[in-house]
Amino acid sequence: NRTFLFCFVFFCFFAGKCVMAVKWRRWPGRLVYTMQDSPGQTRACHSGIVSAARDTLFPQSSSTVRPFSEIPGLWKNSLSNLYTFWKLDGFRNIHRIMVHNFNTFGPIYREKIGYYESVNIIKPEDAAILFKAEGHYPKRLRVEAWTSYRDYRNRKYGVLLKDGEDWRSNRVILNREVISPKVQGNFVPLLDEVGQDFVTRVHKKIERSGQNQWTTDLSHELFKYALESVSTVLYGERLGLLLDYIDPEVQHFIDCITLMFKSTCPMLYIPPSLLRRVGAKVWNDHVKAWDGIFNQADRCIQNIYRQLRKESGAQGKYPGVLASLLMLDRLSIEEIKASVTELMAGGVDTTSITLLWTLYELARHPDLQEELRAEVTAARTASQGDRLQMLKMVPLLKGALKETLRLHPVAVSLQRYIAEDIVIQNYHIPSGTLVQLGLYAMGRDHRIFPHPEQYLPSRWLPTESHYFRSLGFGFGPRQCLGRRIAETEMQLFLIHMLENFRIQKQRQVEVRSTFELILLPKKPILLTIKPLHSS
């Protein structure tokens, strides 16, 4: 109930509690964790890339620098802003509100709602300045509900939730096993097998329909596909989610993941510590969900140890990220379990929703769908069916995923607490300020992307002109740790779908998005899937 929620927050504000500090500080961070957490470059290389892009492509104006207090925006009456935000149902519409604010105030604005304060930017050249100022240990907003559970159960934080030197030392080790370009070859055979099983499942659905087509909301099927994929890569074992019968133990794992996401959302608005003290059901559900998820990780670790003892060093197929980290023996078991579990949690809804939006756009653009199909067919012929080589020959398909993340980003914004004073749009911004880059707003700005309302994957083909415009996975040392897994998974999925099916849309009605932890379709997307040989 929005009225109850607002009254509750309003009371806490005047009571001098930290409710709003947690609520408004933490809430936007939910948008970011999924697609921003990893480097591949050294800090020097990262800074060089940023500096070159900023200084060469985006020269700064020499106008007099204006003080922080003169940044336009909504920051002088935080209570009034809070009430207006509540009235506009800003919790679900933050992405559209940011677009409105940029249109009203220009490319930079300052905002204060309750105790939450940030500076918001939209231009790619300003993003270059932001990332150069993120410091040696980039810091962003945490998922408060997740850290509260770990504190409650005395569990280790994974790399997603860590900061400082502890984050950096863990991150360097994980990068080599998860995001290095060299590891993609390990992931492809595992993910290709899952993709083939998804195709088999869709063919069965079509056959059972008796109509040579299958019309459905694919969101649940894509959720299972994404969970099966990420679990296979991380844990090295199949869950069997694409079978007609699902093992009760595996079903419990699915239920725990679903409950974890569901129970996280209410705690974006009310501090978990308060909910824990009053014994709220949502907190108890959250604890129950994470307990089940970590229990699954424990079972996987036990299975891996048994398998390693059985094989005693025999060389076989890639055993998964978890087994690789255990054999590497550079992190403690608890640290490995924490980071792998966070990777799994951040890699389900994010990829499944991106794939759903991509299929939606391909259904709306049948000519583009045929063009992509031709590219995939040519790549298969040229690579002689080698999937890893195929992935290097489908630039338009990769452009389609970039275009999806431009129009339908999982994250509304990327955030950093800057580690040094900076100047953006000739305004001074002091060190320690939270600065947000509006991804959704940037992707729909005609001054940055010509014809922003059009779905045009070809706009991404000339790569030299796209500095700091494609940031769906973040940038720099804290970009998405699961990026390599997610990109490989989504590219292989689209290859399989284009090789086997034609995707059509039921109605030509535009589907809008709503914010619920991540950006989701506001209503079900119904798609019709036909075998490729169907007329």
From TrEMBL:
Q: State which Enzyme Commission number(s) the record gives.
A: 1.14.15.6
Q: Which gene encodes it?
A: LOC113573160
Which segment of the chain is annotated as a signal peptide? 1-21
State what this protein does: A cytochrome P450 monooxygenase that catalyzes the side-chain hydroxylation and cleavage of cholesterol to pregnenolone, the precursor of most steroid hormones. Catalyzes three sequential oxidation reactions of cholesterol, namely the hydroxylation at C22 followed with the hydroxylation at C20 to yield 20R,22R-hydroxycholesterol that is further cleaved between C20 and C22 to yield the C21-steroid pregnenolone and 4-methylpentanal. Mechanistically, uses molecular oxygen inserting one oxygen atom into a substrate and reducing the second into a water molecule.
Its lineage reads: Eukaryota, Metazoa, Chordata, Craniata, Vertebrata
Localization terms from the record: Mitochondrion inner membrane
Enzyme class per UniProt: oxidoreductase
User: Which is one GO molecular function term here?
Assistant: cholesterol monooxygenase (side-chain-cleaving) activity
Task: Provide the binding site for heme.
Answer: 480
Q: What is this protein called?
A: Cholesterol side-chain cleavage enzyme, mitochondrial
